Amino acid sequence: MTRNEKSAKFLICKRIPCEIDLNSASDEKLWGEHERLSNDLESARTRISQGALSLEEMPSGGGSLLNLKVEIARRTLRRCVFCEWRCRVDRFQGTKKGACKLGGTSLVSTWFKHFGEEPPLVGSRGSGTIFFTSCTFRCVFCQNFDISQNATNGAPVDARNLALIIEDLRNDGALNINFVGGEPTPNLHTILEAMNLTRVNVPMLWNSNMFCSTEAMKLLSGVIDIWLPDFKWGNDKCAVRLSKIIRYFEVVSRNHKIAHENGDMIIRHLVMPNHVECCTKRILEWIAENCPRALVNIMGQYHPDNEVDDHPESFPDIARRPTRREMEEAYEYADELGIIYRPVS
To pair with 112 at 20 to 30 A between CA atoms, which of 37, 238, 282, 305? Predict the structure, then answer.
């Protein structure tokens, strides 16, 4: 998919007919139909990849699996469980906000062709990167804290405007569309609806902390071509202290498995000073066992920022950059495990 030679998943999803009345159907019926049509989607994708079916031969117009996903996302927003905070706040009305500090309106900080992503995602054309505000984490070292911790630091974007941004980036040569932030997960309703309005063929990339709920992962799995997940912590103790997030390893490892089964994947791991043993090595071991096809980017770009920069005495273990020896130890361990890919950071 990174070579951009196939039909994007969301376009195939648009051609899978959905004949039930989305307005009157119960939530249970919607999810049951979603499961059935997701099987049809996988069958269609297989036939297309084998040359036995073309996108043009599939039905168009009327209800579709993507319409169904949009409706489920809209309903989910009324008792929001897009992420595993599962706060069940009614974000739809816009008067209440979830753990993400967002109501029903998505805010975008900026968008542009990004040439600093992993080489397979960039080529000579760049990745069409869209930065959403807000995040489900509160990382004390966040380098994008101006948009991740300030949910209002962006412009309101509805689905139609987001679709225009996607098309503009693609028409300007972007190799893919890269949903990031902050964190894209709280904006799933806007993103799915924008895909439904998008008229160009472009791979969709999910650049996320992967604290998505199982419901969100089901909605994403039929439309995301390339997964760019982050795997930060090898244990929950470090996650709670430094990212203020609960059930980290359970949730993120589960979602990495789902992503690995549903598209191309590059896993990012940021090596933290003094965390090679407790986090880096455990994560690499887990990846080698559970995501053998995944490419892995072991990153050395960490530097103290945000709260760590302001109060280094409160976070002495991460108040410096990783040493050369720490990075070498991470690379050597990856080699021992047979990790597929390691760009120089």
Answer: 305
Spell out the residues 6+ positions from residue 283 whose beta carbon is closer than 8 angstroms to its own.
231, 233, 234, 269
Q: Which of 254, 264, 268 shows the shortest CA–CA distance to 216?
A: 254
Report pLDDT for 96: 82
Kindly state the average pLDDT of the residues 79-90.
97
Q: Is the dihedral of CA 176, 181, 183, 188 positive or negative?
A: negative
The end-to-end CA distance of the chain, in Å, is 24
In the three-class reduction of DSSP (H, G, I as helix; E, B as strand; rest coil), residue 265 is classed as strand
Structural domains in the chain, CATH included, are 261-345 (3.30.750)
Beta bridge partners of 64: 17
Residues sharing a CB contact under 8 Å with residue 300, sequence separation 6 or more, in sequence order: 271, 322, 327, 345
Strand partners, 269: 298
Q: Which pLDDT value is given to residue 3?
A: 53
